[in-house]
Design a protein that fits this description.
By secondary structure, this protein is α+β, with helices and mostly antiparallel strands. The chain folds into 2 domains: 2-51 and 268-400, no CATH class; 103-227, no CATH class. It has 13 helices and 12 strands. The strands form 2 sheets. It has a 6-stranded mixed barrel with strand order 4-5-10-7-9-8. Strands 2-3 form a two-stranded antiparallel ribbon. Helix 2 (18-55) runs antiparallel to helix 9, helix 2 (18-55) packs across helix 11 (320-357) and helix 11 (320-357) runs antiparallel to helix 12 (365-391). The radius of gyration is 33 Å and the shape is elongated. 38% of the residues are buried.
Amino acid sequence: MRLFTTIIIAFRALRRNLLRSILTGLGMIIGVGAVITLISMGNGAKAQVEAQIASLGDNLITVFPGNFTTGGVRGGWGSASTLTVEDADAIREQVPGAIGVSPETMDRVQVIVAGLNWNTRVQGESADYPAIRSWPLSAGDFFSEQDVRTTAKVCVLGQTVADQLFPDGDPVGQTIRARNIPLRVTGVMKAKGFNAAGTDQDDFIIVPYTTAMKRVTRRDRISQIIIQAQDADSVERVQREVENLLSQRRDGRDPDYTVRNQVEIAQARNAANETMTWLLAGIGAVSLVVGGIGIMNIMLVSVTERTREIGIRLAVGAHGWDVLLQFLTEAVVLSLLGGGLGIAMGIGASEFISAHNNIPVAISSFSIVLAFGVSAFIGIAFGFFPAFKAAQLDPIDALRYE
């Protein structure tokens, strides 16, 4: 009952200077709102990365070009490729547990049909591609291994290309031209939409990698190799065997490739997201500290303004602890009110950003509980000194104060 009475008195004291209380709480409101919004955006980005990595396929291993050393200079991912079709063939034939292998080539081409044209990405792949990527077709069929061996002039369209080139008809069985090469459409991949970077995942055509290398792009190197392990338990083993095989094929030379699995790719991307999230959340935490300093400043002013009131309370029998509890309660109430409004602002801002900017957000209960707890802690931490100062006042000196 005594605590309830103290809380009621605290609300009355804050209401007496309502505008000052609101302005003091702004620091907490902005700080808590910023922390929740930024953490929600970071969690949303992490969830989207995990979903995108999962959408790449099951038990996926990727061999990237690069990571070679020349004269002490390391190239890194995406350096000039020295990967070959023979590397992919060796992996398919000599690595147990690699149930799907696709050497990939990438380029951009202008595709034309019946007076319409579209600039898009052309991918050279093997017949294993749909299984490796766990990507079904919405119409028609994928090209066969026979098409790969015979360098067939066939292709599979992404949904965006199908919509652009065949807005009123079925593209399956039709012929398009890429760099003046006629390609018969055998199927259309199921739509996936845009990824986190804003890239249209359906804007592509897929041709047999032999067709891409010999007819369309005329390149003798491949961009990367994607591999599907038999199951999740064999991913690391298959990855090690791929690394050992490629090393043997290079006679012990410095590796000109980088082998990564889905988990490692997700961890690398999430590490970057988490670093940025906590960096931005730290900026929000600065606002919380500034808000706490504002609360301490206003409470010190309040102690000065109410010195005579404190003297009267002490003179009629109140203890120093009662005064300390009173002012500490006011600081905590002010802080929690600011924190509560900040939580509402953070949730609202997160939903607004998600709705109007297509930025993924994931509001977690942990961030809300954390923000509320931090608000209470700041109220106690920054309100204790003014409350302690009020409790130490001499009743006689306080009563003389004008």
